[in-house]
Amino acid sequence: MYLYLKALHIIGVVTWFAGLFYIVRLFVYLTEAHERPEAERDVLLPQLQLMARRLWFGITWPSCIATVIFGGALLHTWWPPPTWLQVKLVGVVGLLAYHGSCHWLHARLQAGEPPWTSRSLRIWNEVATLFLVGIVFLVVVKDGLSLVYGTVGLLIFTAVLMAGITAYRRVRMRSQESGR
Hints:
Blueprint: H1 2-33, H2 38-74, H3 83-110, H4 118-141, H5 147-177
Helix pairs in contact: 1-2, 1-3, 1-4, 2-3, 3-4, 4-5
């Protein structure tokens, strides 16, 4: 039974993250579609809204719920929870808050009211990556990694991600300026 719960939990985690990564990318496209000429906007917005709705309610929410249920069912195997698991659970609560913020963004974009710029959404898309990296490293190394080294590593990873976003933005701007 334990292995089935663990397998279902891992499947839930993988599909939840896939949904979180893709939904924010759709948010970027929806936000940018509002800036397109009317003819393009009239075609793009309904299609992107449909894609976002299907992804959000058909994959991302069910995967989130499955992850919480199957992960919760596995908690008894680690009771009382060691320090690394307590920190991981704090990360999971943070990820649930991120999920909630994406739900708010989804609702606003479905209403045709983009709350953020596409650049802000691109940055927001990387927050899920930070949760993924932090939680996975914590699970893999458990108590072998000090909190200080883990935090420093995550901060360095965040800086590298932000540098990548900035570099990509510069490349995009140059490409648009040259008319490509």
